[in-house]
Amino acid sequence: MAEEMAEEATLTDGFNLVIDALKLNDINTIYNVPGIPITDLGRYMQAAGMRVLSFRHEQNAGYAAAIAGYLTQKPGVCMTVSAPGFLNGLTALAHATTNCFPMILISGSSEREIIDLQQGDYEEMDQLAIAKPLCKAAYRVLHAEDIGIGIARAIRAAVSGRPGGVYLDFPAKLLAQTMDAAAGEQSLVKVIDAAPRQLPAPESVARALDVLKGAERPLIILGKGAAYAQADDAIREFVEKSGVPYLPMSMAKGLLPDTHKQSAGAARSLALKESDVVMLIGARLNWLLSHGKGRTWGDKPKKFIQVDIEPKEMDSNVEIVAPVVGDIGSCVAALLDGMGDSWSAPPSDWTGAIREKVETNVARMAPRLQNNNVPMDYQGALGALRTIIKQRPDAILVNEGANTLDFARSIIDMYKPRKRLDVGTWGVMGVGMGTAIAAAVETGNQVLAIEGDSAFGFSGMEIETICRYDLPVCVVVFNNGGIYQGTGVNPSGGSDVSTTVFVKDSRYDKMIEAFGGVGVTATSPDALSQAVNAAMDSGKPTLVNAVIDEAAGTESGRIGNLNPQRVVAQKK
Ligand code: ADP
Ligand code: TPW
Ligand code: MG
Asked: Measured in whole angstroms, how far is the alpha carbon of residue 142 from the centre of its chain?
């Protein structure tokens, strides 16, 4: 007996090595759904002092990990079982990669010998091959002594350069493999300087400043890459020193307060249309910016300066006349340095025109945001929530839906960096509850999730998770009875309702009561305000069913123009 124990003490196994490798690299929180072969791994992690949060669906655990990565600059880790669990998590891994968030998806898998001969193992699937095209990197570890290096590679791949999603495949057998404990400890790798600074070439900085200086109607666009970079003070200093109007992309709102006098947020169309030089900082010229295809006064093409860590991003849609490749912190510091002390502000007719437009638009909206209509419209309901965020600027706002997203984005001012988390580059529905959970877990701040009723449905079961961990999350479901509107009719006149319509007068508030949370129905902006303030004062898991006029929204919110138009009528 004593001999056996002595022998055990000199051995370690795959389970221990995974835990030791993660902890060594300061990864202490795991988002997961248990099952073979990772149930015990989760248990042992918990026993070793890690925080292991279990979800009701892997996609939501994955979205939690993705946003954890965005908020912390460390890869968020999602852990799933093989085949179906892996596939459920994969959507989130692809989402993380698309959005440049660092994340690691660890999935258990079945035995190589059986998978490769396709002999039908329990949950058999060649996961590595499937993950590869959907993430930044994918690795499989077959030997216990490679766990340390495998995890190190995964971390570095996720956070260095342009961040993204990494898949790590752990066959069940690996976890049970044993090896000498001392050798095991030596095999662990602490990643040194996982995301090293990448300094821009000095001539690229000078070129960018030249182009900016020569502009008559310059505009800075801040994207979520700028928010991710956590170079908040330098970015603010750069924007202020330049005197250039700026537009925040959705998740960059609050990097500088939306009420800043250089914000062109409320004059977005004018700023985008008439600017002659646009400087992108951590934002891509994708569909969200019409691929950079707009022209400017005199039908001249716009000139673009782009600051990004990914060299391949340059010229992806249009010519970039001044690419600045490097990490945003280093690039902005170099730009500031190069501006010297005698930088002159852009022409005042341009900055004045933007300012005037902002003021007119803000003044026009103000009374509409104060309406107390019943049933509520988006302006009345969001006007109430806007005031709450103004009073509680540290609260994290999670937002998804169509109208619910588009109106909230433009109505609710943000005051601090990384406080607005939403559907990201894909405009994906279903990120809501996973995002809200990770935001609460990673920051400890109060979370306000503003959810379309359809959007909420994609991850609604996770309100049990919110209640289980007693998280300070207040979910407001904008209940307009459907997707875009609750008024759709079945064109055939048949008994099925329209494809965009849900059950009338649904009581989403009752769902959270089933798990011990607080449920409230609010039919007026005043009632909504009261319910959300109470939730935020108490920090209790709360769901407010906000009853919205079912006719208030529009098809697809602000992106209805992307719907293909039917040209040939259907044959009867
Ligand atoms: P948005 O949707 O807000 O416009 P995107 O996701 O399109 O933002 O763009 C983010 C960009 O930021 C990506 O091109 C990415 O390479 C870049 N990026 C991310 N982190 C950094 C960083 N630390 N330094 C420089 N660029 C970064
Ligand atoms: C994974 C398509 C875009 S917006 C939306 C859907 C289904 C729901 C809009 O209704 P909601 O908001 O949330 O009630 P509102 O205020 O306009 O009524 N599947 C995925 N992602 C997307 N984007 C869709 C479908 C979609
Ligand atoms: Mg809806």
From this structure: 32
Q: What is the pLDDT of residue 450?
A: 99
pLDDT digits (tens, 9 = 90+) for 461-471: 999 999 999 99
Q: What is the pTM of this model?
A: 0.97
Residues 6+ apart with CB under 8 A from 329: 197, 229, 230, 231, 234
Instruction: Please list, residue by residue across 304-328, b when 16 or more beta carbons sit within 10 angstroms of its beta carbon and e when fewer do.
Output: bbbbbbbeebbeebeebbbbbbbbb
Atom from ligand 1 closest to the CA of residue 198? 24
In the chain, count H helices and then E strands. Answer: 23, 21
Q: Is 392 in the pocket of ligand 1 (CB under 6 A)?
A: no
- Residue 6, pLDDT score: 59
The C-alpha atoms of residue 271 and residue 350 are separated, in whole angstroms, by: 9
Exposed/middle/buried for residue 219 (C-beta within 10 Å: 0-12, 13-18, 19+) = buried
Q: Whose CA is nearest to atom 21 of ligand 1?
A: 225
For 108-119, how does the pLDDT look when each residue is reduced to its tens digit (9 = 90+)?
999 999 999 999
Q: Which residues neighbour 230 within 8 Å (Cβ) at sequence distance 6 or greater?
A: 73, 329, 417
Task: Give the count of alpha carbons within 13 A of 292, CB side only.
Answer: 25
Reading the block at residue 533, the tokens are 């303030």
Angle at which helix 348-369 crosses helix 378-391, to 10 degrees, equals: 110
C-alpha dist (Å) from residue 342 to 99, 129, 213, 240, 407: 37, 56, 11, 13, 40
Q: List, as one string, the DSSP characters of 98-155.
A: HHT--EEEEEEE--HHHHHTT---TT---HHHHHGGGSSEEEE--SGGGHHHHHHHHH
Q: Is the CB of 323 under 6 A from ligand 1?
A: no
Ligand 1 pocket test: which of 310, 313, 315, 330 has the largest number of ligand atoms within 8 Å of its C-beta?
310
Centre of ligand 2 to C-alpha 199, Å, is 40
Indicate if ligand 1 lies below 6 Å from the C-beta of 235. Answer: no
8 A C-beta contact, residue 449 and residue 433 = yes
Q: Is the C-beta atom of 425 inside 6 A of ligand 1?
A: yes
The one-character DSSP state at 317 is S
Provide the token pair at 562.
């992307």
Spacing, Cα 219 to ligand 1 middle (Å): 17
Contact at 8 Å (CB) between 498 and 490?
yes
User: Which domains occur in the chain, in start order?
Assistant: 12-187 (3.40.50.970), 202-355 (3.40.50.1220), 370-547 (3.40.50.970)
Nearest atom in ligand 2 to 402's CA: 17
Res 132 pLDDT > 70: yes
User: Which residue's entry shows tokens 């690691």?
Assistant: 104
Closest Cα to residue 187, out of 236, 144, 130, 222? Answer: 144
Yes or no: say if 52 and 32 are a contact pair by the CB < 8 Å rule.
yes
**C-beta 418 within 6 A of ligand 1:** no
- Alpha-carbon distance of 545 to 477, in angstroms, equals 5
Which ligand lies nearest to the CA atom of residue 422 in the structure? 1
* CA 373 to centroid of ligand 2, rounded, Å: 25
As given in the structure block, the two tokens for residue 148 are 């340390």
* C-alpha dist (Å) from residue 2 to 9, 12, 179, 256, 347: 11, 17, 19, 64, 84
